[in-house]
Amino acid sequence: MSHLSDKQQIQEKGISPEALEEQLNRFKKGFASLHIDRPATPGDGIVPLTDQTLQQFSKIYNSEIDNNLAPLKFVPASGAATRMFKAYFQYLENPVDIDSLEKGHPINEFILELPSFPFFQALKGYLAQLDLDYLEVRKSHAREIVQTLLSDKGLNYGALPKGLLLFHNYPNGARTSMMEHLLEGAHYAKDAKGRVNLHFTVSTEHLELFEEEFAQMGPQIEEETGAIFSVTFSSQKPHTDTVAVLPNNEPYRDSEGRLLFRPGGHGSLIENLNDQDADIIFIKNIDNIVPAHLLPNTSKYKIALAGMALHIRNKVHDFIGRLIQSKSPSLIEEIRSFMRQTLFTELPGHLADASLEEQATYLLGYLNRPIRVCGMVKNEGEPGGGPFWVRNSNGQETLQIVESSQIDLTDALQSKIFGASTHFNPVDLICITKDFRGEKFDLVRYVDPETGFISDKSVAGKTIKALEKPGLWNGAMADWLTLFAEVPGETFNPVKTVNDLLRPGHQFSR
Q1: Using CA atoms, how far apart are residues 332 and 51, in angstroms rounded to an integer?
Q2: Euclidean distance between CA atoms 456 and 262, whole angstroms
Q3: pTM, whole model, 2 decimals?
Q4: Phi first, then psi: what are they for 344, rounded to 5°?
Q5: What is the number of helices (H) and of strands (E) in the chain?
Q6: Do 236 and 269 meet the contact criterion of CB atoms below 8 Å apart?
Q7: Contacts of 494 (CB under 8 A, 6+ apart)
Q8: Per residue in 27-44, pLDDT tens?
Q9: Residue 428's closest CA among 271, 306, 269?
Q10: Straight-line distance from the first to the last Cα atom of the chain, in angstroms, rounded to the nearest whole number
Q11: What is the per-residue pLDDT for 509?
């Protein structure tokens, strides 16, 4: 082992030798599976939102905004769009006559529906010699069209991040998903002075492109909304990278003998979130965005979720203040009643009959944590995690967003519980990251390090193992005070493949 080079490498990244050793040991011992107790359901962890509660919570949020609440919208946007075009890259490797492809094939659909894509006009600019309005022309030049879409001789969509792809058409031109997030932010994250703060996490290689996009298009959205946008960017921190190993758990080395480090997954962004200073933070993925005409419904639920989070914050902060002053039996009972009625949980069994002092001490720790309210949609077969009850090491029931990779699906009972989930996580989070004194929590302290996972990857034709940090809304927020709320499926419009842009939820309404 070239220790000198290793030392230098980890020093440059800001990783300590101890942290590296810990990562290498983690590959050997792995991660224990998470044990889920039962799915969270409406009335048991998930709050159904009625017209009355929508109104009640919206009122709370709007009143806090008038009272100078500082909101922030936090958008993870570092993901490259490569996976969106998987079928397209495969087609370029083996281009065939369009008519020989089955009807539902992604490339067939792409060529057929090309004029409906938001980037159609931009593509026409690169292929002015072809009349792309005619289907037969598109069919006979399919390979050239796909190549122009993906390569750096055209739109370069194969190498760009999702945030910089054109997502929606408007009469005055198409807009990228980044710009659509600005527009959405103006609907619910505007402060009393008309300012909208947004933070995008981007990869360092694309930072300049994001800045250019905002400089160029931001003024147009400002004019349209009357909002003043303050946009900041950050990238995953190098010290959150993780080392890669071979199947035998020995460090993988490249042809020059250097260690290979990979980004530790979206869970690394807990550090970027930790750097933000806001009273309430909305988190939403870059590819989950709708065009302007569908924003009112999305915003209605966002505002209600924010009001719910503030309602919980106000109750919790009031309880903490009173607990510090006195520890009366009536106050303890009031808090326990709040836990039952609002948070759907109880004190762990061993504390039910403990002394007043013990219960008060426990409740102070239980309440004094970051808070999150997460929107949940009915499960209609989308891939991803869902809401579950999990018991922590204290015996306390906690609400968690759990991915299939976190549990042992070979265990029949665990598999059955996982399969019984009625709801799905669309990544629709409202976060309160300040304590009752108005000081920021150190979010890194609330991560459960036991909830990461190991995945198989391929590098230079070799199989390697990669270490993923606990996911941002999974283990990285495992120790937050959590509540779920049911939101309608229409508020969830992700773009996982480029053909998803053809769905009604992404098409311009004339």
Answers
A1: 32
A2: 12
A3: 0.95
A4: 60, 30
A5: 15, 19
A6: yes
A7: 285, 287, 288, 382, 426, 500
A8: 999 888 899 999 999 999
A9: 306
A10: 64
A11: 61
Return the higher-pLDDT residue of 352 and 403: 403
Q: Indicate the angle between helix axes 329-341 and 295-325, nearest 10 degrees.
A: 160
Report CA torsion sign: 205, 207, 211, 216.
Answer: positive
| Mean residue pLDDT across the chain | 93
User: Can you tell me the distance from the alpha carbon of 190 to that of 31, in angstroms, rounded to the nearest whole number?
Assistant: 42
CA atoms within 13 A on the CB side of 300: 16
Phi/psi class of residue 162: alpha, beta or left (left: φ > 0; alpha: ψ in -120 to 50)? alpha
User: The tokens 């022309």 sit on which residue?
Assistant: 137
The token duo for 471 is 């996911």
Distance CA 420, CA 251 (A): 40
Assess contact for 53 and 485: CB atoms under 8 A: no
d(CA 439, CA 429) in angstroms, rounded, equals 21
Helix (H, G, I), strand (E, B) or coil at 423: strand
Phi-psi region of 32 (alpha: psi -120 to 50; beta: other; left: phi over 0): beta
Overall average pLDDT of the 52-76 stretch: 97
Q: Quick one: pLDDT band at residue 4, thresholds 50, 70, 90?
A: low
Using the structure block, give the residue that is written with the tokens 């080392």: 243
pLDDT number for residue 507: 86
Could you tell me what percentage of the chain is helix, strand and coil, using 3-state DSSP and rounding each to the nearest 5?
A: 45, 20, 35
- How large is the greatest C-alpha to C-alpha distance in the chain, in angstroms? 82
Measure Cα distances from 161 to 84, 87, 340, 440, 495 in Å: 10, 17, 44, 31, 13
